[in-house]
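ok so i was messing around last nite and threw this chain in just to see what happens. nothing serious, just curious
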Amino acid sequence: VQLVESGGGSVQAGGSLRLSCAASGYSLSSYCMGWFRQAPGKEREAVASMYTGGGDSTYYADSVKGRFTISHDNADNTLYLQMLSLKPEDTAMYYCAARSLPGVVPPLAESSYNIWGQGTQVTVS
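result:
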């Protein structure tokens, strides 16, 4: 199972980016997936998550509500994070995460996920 993020980069404040997470060996229609981020000197925090197996319930950190949108395309087995109105405080390494185990878990808890990508850097100036 492998998750590969892409789409990061450097943008000015107010700009936008779309992150992608391509999954191999894992079906996005299974359980839960999410985006987390870690800024230098800070702990990793949840950004957004969703149950991809049906219903498509989404969850967001308060800091990104109204600006970020998580979505998925099961046909391409890809998870997305559309980021609008970016702020300097959004600067971080962004990680894609997936849960391959059954059960209902806190969707924004790091401990809920057992598969992680390598991250993609987002820098907002």
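not much to say yet. The mean pLDDT is 92.
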